[in-house]
Amino acid sequence: FIFQKKMDELDMFSVHNEEEEDANMKPEDRKHLFKKELLKMLYGFGDDKVPYDKTLDLLEVMVCNYVRDISVAALNVGKPDKITLEDIHYLISRDPKKYGRVRELLSANQEIKEKSMPLLNGGLQFLRCIYLQLSVFYLQKEYQLQILVFSAISILSYDILLTPTDENSVIAHIFLWPFRSFFRTTAFLLFCYSSNELKDGDKEYACWSGYIALLLLLINPVWVYNGATEKIKNGIFVSIDVCIVNPLSKIYAAVYYICTFKFLKSLSEYSSRQAQRTKNFFIVTGNEISERLKKSWRYIISKMDYYLYQPMKNSKIGQPAKDKYHRFIEKVQYVIYGYWLSPVIEKVKITLKKQALTLLIYTKNFTIQLGIYLNNFVIWPVLVWGYNIALVPILEIVKEKYRYVEDNVLIYFLAPVCRTVINAVPEKSPFVEDSDLELDDFLPDENDDAESNTSWDPDDDEARRKEKEAALIAKKEKIKQKAALIEFPDFNDLGSSDEEFMFND
């Protein structure tokens, strides 16, 4: 994906030999041929296989395959068995203008390698982090020590053996290793320190140093991928340039300009420029003053015309004529357009509404009186007659039947049942013995019954009954006297006021 993006940005397929290119071949055809050759080279399709050096990576092989024919023609040699990057750089140095796009493609190749290697290292460091965390919890001390030593050795061997030398000697590459990457060098030292502490038995310091080393190894790919070092260095250089170099250079230039009397050379020119500027200023100022005076005079004339002449002309001549003409036109429009009909129609509407309301009130009162008459003289007598004829005999018959059934039930059912229950109850409880005296207090005394029977007098009982009847009669008389004071309405003469059914205006 990255390679395809870079090819689109650099327009790689436009790189070709203009002298040997077929004039009829289109860019799409060249792209198709290039892809075809690339598939042959990568997967061995066809018979045209080129034995390239296996140390070249994929993108370098693509570049070599693409510029192969051009390099053969430029170097004036036969078809080589192997084309290296040195040959391509030599070809670019011979004609930089012609093969400029190839140089851009090679720089893109280097950029892709620089971007992809930190990502690959980041993935490896992530796997290493997982493995070390698992070893902390699940492995013994000897295996943990071996893992720490192996991690330190892997960092050192990878940085020395597998990283490019950047056109430096091997000895310089080895001696410059501690200064190439701060994070990886610090991680190497921390792994060594962690292994030493673990060997001495201090597991806490060993664990913390190991985790810090892994954190540095995880930060390093992101740091390299984003170019943080270059950004910091550029920021420092820019800050030094802005804060120190530029002010000092400006001060030095000013001092040098003054001390060498170079300002005398431009003094005459400056004086002439100032004189010309002053002259132009006075000319422009005079023109502006004259123009403003003209505008002020025009403004005064226009205001006098607007506030003095025009109002006088309109008020004395034009406005009276306009008013008369407008009044005449309004009268003609009032008659012709029928504007006078609207007041007449409004008055007719008001009169009709009043008459309709009067008719509605009369109809309402008549309906109420008719309803009251029908209720008092037709509906109520019919209901009373129907009740007396139809319901009263039926109710009497039902009452007689109910009394007959009730008497039969009492005589033939409840009386035998009660007699049977009474006969079945013993006179004395079988659970109480004659010697038990606990419940004697609850039994009635036979002497009391005898005394009560001897003290009963039928005359006294009759006197009490008469007193109760006399009290009941006196109470009924009081109720009748109170009821006589209350006037109950006569439902036959029931009527309603017409004001209750009046419509609210």
Automatic annotation (TrEMBL):
Residues 443-461 have a biased composition (Acidic residues). GO terms for biological process: transcription by RNA polymerase II. Residues 443-467 are annotated as: Disordered. The chain crosses the membrane at residues 174-193, 205-224, 236-259, 378-398. It comes from the Eukaryota. It is found in: Nucleus. Its main location: nucleus. This is Transcription initiation factor TFIID subunit 13.
